[in-house]
Amino acid sequence: MPAGDGSEAALLAARRPLARPYDGPRMASLSRDEVAHVARLARLQLSEEQLDTFTPQLAAILEHAADVEALDLADVPATSHPYPLKNVWRPDVPRDAGIREAVLDQAPDAEAGMFRVPPVLGEAP
Amino acid sequence: MSPVDTARSTAAAVRAGERSARSVVEAHLGAIGERDGELHAFNLVTADAALAHADEIDAQVAAGHDPGPLAGVPIAVKDNLCTAGVPTTCSSKILDGWRPPYDATVVQRLRAAGAVSVGKTNLDEFAMGSSTENSAFGPTRNPHDTSRVPGGSSGGSAAAVAAGFAPLALGSDTGGSIRQPAAFCGIVGAKPTYGAVSRYGLVAFASSLDQIGPFATDVADAALLLEVISGHDPLDSTSIPKPPLSLSSTLQQGVEGLRVGVVKELLDAEGIHPDVASRTRAALEALEGAGAKIEEVSVPAVIYGLSAYYLIAPAEASSNLARYDGVRYGLRVDAPTTGEMYDRTRTAGFGAEVERRIMLGTYALSAGYYDAYYGKAQKVRTLIIRDFEAAYERCDVLLSPTAPTTAFELGAKADPLAMYLNDVCTIPSNLAGHPAISVPFGSGDDGLPVGVQIMAPAMGEATMFRVAAALEGARA
Fold it and tell me: Which of A33, B52, B230, B395 is the most exposed place for a label (fewest CB within 10 A)?
């Protein structure tokens, strides 16, 4: 039996020892409407079929994260950066970076030194 | 596998004028031409530019100048590293047509050291995945068995080195994306300390976790490449203000008296395949035989690593990928209004896994859930760092498997969560910001390579590479 095969069940079973057993109350499982709302926030137009696929997948991932949600960490500080670096400063001196044309060359549409986009508000009704 | 000279021997021969950089590059382009149609390690092979660069190197040698420690050595560069004027796609349709106006710092440093880039390698879209199957341009295949994945997300870079397309490659590692493909492809891959290598010009996935690192056929080559790319860079505010790492000079000092701990939570986990566990134990015995002191240690909080990672990384990704809006570069899908253009562009440009992670991250950061998910995950990170610090009071380095299994078949992990479980051993080092390296150590019953992971505290690369070299030397 190849080591990469037949281990799927074992891998999924790894959720038990790798996530602390947890039987307490859980955050309400994700609804299809919530997924549709999040898609709008993320500016993605998901099809009905994608909503059907994503809803249980995202719910399963969040359920796996329930072990973290269940921890009492009131006295633990958050780590937002793994290395204790202080803020990095430099003098704020205006200068010409000399790359405006190179940057605008990459734009889907540019005009008169600016990025050009479709109307922001659309046509008047 | 086609046998390759090491980067060290190639650079020495080119610097001494015994071998031309052109002949080295031509040989590797030949290997790529023969087999990359089958493997798809590269998104783009820059043959003409590589040959022109090789000629420059040869001209320098002829003029009595030293082109540098990697003179004439071909290198494959992951396609999420910016290369001036050369398409950089992140294996995503959303960067269609984009040519960065600048080089990543690591790309500049490679050039300054005389290395010759031969092309840009395939990856899971925006480095999100563990198999390179999430590429918009199709998967990369494992050179050891083309029915298998090379791992990911830096699967193209790992496959390129394993196939002899280049002796060196660069990858990026956010949750294991260098170490796991190195293990699957039977080569060496290292994730440095967060901040040891500049991220300037690395397309951002999860900014507090991403780190660039080396792939090579052996430990000494990986050390040489890391020396070249490491060191402070004022263009990356998270770059550690220290000189480049010094690794090669202490590489052969052995492990006599060093304390090596095996992390029991990562070795005894139910998902670890018995072949992988037994090779990891064999590695421990080999190090003990070489004079190291072995003990079992507990790093209890690593059991929360996977959950914390799959909240933090998508959260940061959802923020970083908000920049892809069709305004300034890459794909634009036209629409009557700007808002509609954003929506259509992002929907057409991102693949399913990227969409899934953007959704997950947007949810985890949204009102009412931030404290329960993202906030708590950041606190778990503190727990993991504390537990590692306790373990490093007793041990110089820690050992574990790199990945739970050997390389799996293409299509075997359709369930996203099953794919994520691949990263269970590699994620803790990213969350802690610590360095870790995968060294090949034999194979499973299936004949496929097994990698063993060596972890060290922040900026502990020199000791970590010493242990890696000793383990490599003990390989039967």
Answer: A33
Domain holding A39: CATH number?
Answer: 1.10.20.60
pLDDT at B475: 81
Whether B2 has a pLDDT exceeding 80, the answer reads: no
**B53-62 core/surface letters (b: 16 or more CB in 10 A; e: else):** bbeebbebbe
Bridge-based pairing state of the strands B188-191 and B436-443: antiparallel
B183: CATH: 3.90.1300.10
A-proximal residues of B, 272-291, CB under 8 Å = 272-273, 275-276
Say yes or no to pLDDT of B298 above 60: yes
User: Is some CB atom of chain A closer than 8 A to the CB atom of B303?
Assistant: yes
Domain-located, residue B42? yes
Q: Are B306 and A19 in contact (CB under 8 A)?
A: yes
Nearest CA distance, A45 vs chain B (angstrom): 6
Distance, CA of B108 to CA of B116 (rounded, Å): 11
- Across the range B192-205, mean pLDDT stands at 97
Q: How many structural domains are present in chain A?
A: 1
With respect to residue A93, please indicate whether it lies within any of the assigned structural domains.
no
pLDDT tens digits, one per residue of A73-114: 989 999 877 677 777 788 899 988 888 999 999 999 999 999
| pLDDT tens digits along A18-48 | 444 444 444 447 899 999 999 999 999 999 9
